[in-house]
Design goal:
The structure holds two protein chains of two kinds. Chain A is 82% helix and 0% strand. Chain A is an all-alpha fold. Chain A has two domains: 1-65, no CATH class; 69-170, no CATH class. In chain A, helix 2 packs antiparallel against helix 3 (31-65), helix 5 (80-93) packs parallel to helix 7 and helix 8 (132-139) crosses helix 9. By secondary structure, chain B is mainly alpha-helical. Chain B has one domain (2-138). Helix content of chain B is 77%, strand content 0%. The chains are: A mainly alpha, B mainly alpha. The interface between A and B is large, with 65 and 62 residues.
């Protein structure tokens, strides 16, 4: 009975229930962390609402534009170097937490965009332009330049390697 | 024709929202819990000064940490001031922003298990390699 019920529950609901159970445990045994966590959750939630709206707007626009088969074909068949450059630029320019982008990337993946481009995009999201002055303040300009350069190069290497592994296993 | 296209795009967007809202809420709850349960000075205690182990430790803790990258810079800056190696701090900062253990369940649900596991694994390995390379190059400047 319980097993069949568990099988019917989607993965995302299971994940949500597990998190709720952990919260209940903290509510019983450590009220301070429970209240702090709820407060932190609320702050995070308020913080991401504008970004969420922007992301869903982008999803809507991509649904509108990418429905054209021709454009999907262009992205699908984007030549190596051009595809890499586009993914790097979009990754660096994107903002908001990484998980905010999963729905849009999931849609693009279903439309046939290469895994390597998604990996490169996600890796380059770590290059945060608005935070660079702060990084320079803490670690110096040489550090930031060298680190950023390596991050961009390794994003492409990761993209290629993940793509190879995924296509090999299919 | 245009009206139909807009309607179709709106329906697809609604489905995306429906599919993603629960994982997003779960990730936010998990991050909030993590931020509250792990005190910031905890990170000062986990590095031993070992040149090989510290970058690995840094990458491990950065991978499971969550929150605004600004926090990783602040913690990283404090760790450097306390004499912890640049490679360890760099691996910590890099894996904080490139590896996401807490959001891994959501990434698996949205982008696929193999994709998410491989991406995070290679991001973890890259964090260690880049950290060692950056520290090595900066030692000559």
């Amino acid at each position: 009975m319980i097993k069949s019920l568990l099988l019917k529950i989607s993965g995302s609901l299971k994940f949500f229930i597990i998190i709720l159970c952990i919260y209940i445990i903290f509510a019983i045994f450590n009220t301070e962390i429970f209240i702090k966590s709820l407060y932190a959750f609320w702050n995070l939630f308020i913080e991401i609402i504008p970004v969420l709206i922007l992301i869903y707007l982008l999803i809507f626009l991509s649904n509108l534009v990418l429905n054209s088969k021709k454009i999907i074909e262009v992205i699908k068949n984007a030549s190596g170097i051009l595809g890499y450059i586009i993914s790097i630029i979009f990754g660096i320019l994107s903002s908001g937490p990484i998980y905010m982008w999963y729905p849009l990337l999931s849609d693009l993946k279903e439309k046939g965009v290469k895994n390597s481009f998604i990996v490169i995009f996600l890796y380059n999201r770590a290059v945060k332009l608005p935070l660079i002055p702060m990084m320079i303040y803490y670690f110096g300009i040489n550090y930031v330049i060298i680190l950023t350069g390596f991050m961009i190069v390794f994003s492409v290497i990761n993209g290629i390697v993940v793509e190879k592994f995924l296509t090999q296993k299919k | 024709m245009i009206h139909l296209q807009i309607q179709k795009a709106a329906d697809q967007t609604y489905n995306s929202i429906k599919r993603s809202i629960l994982p997003l809420l779960s990730v936010l709850l998990a991050i909030a819990l993590f931020m509250s349960a792990i005190p910031k000075n905890f990170y000062n205690k986990i590095f031993t000064g070992n040149g090989f182990l510290d970058p690995l430790t840094g990458a491990l803790f950065g991978s499971v940490a969550a929150g605004n990258p600004v926090n990783s810079y602040v913690i990283g800056g404090e760790l450097l001031n306390q004499g912890i190696g640049l490679a360890a701090v760099t691996a910590f900062i890099l894996s904080w922003v490139t590896v996401g253990v807490i959001q891994l369940p959501a990434e698996i649900l949205m982008l696929g298990k193999k994709f998410a596991l491989l991406r995070n694994l290679f991001s973890f390995i890259s964090a260690i390699i880049i950290a060692i390379l950056v520290a090595f190059i900066l030692s000559f400047i």
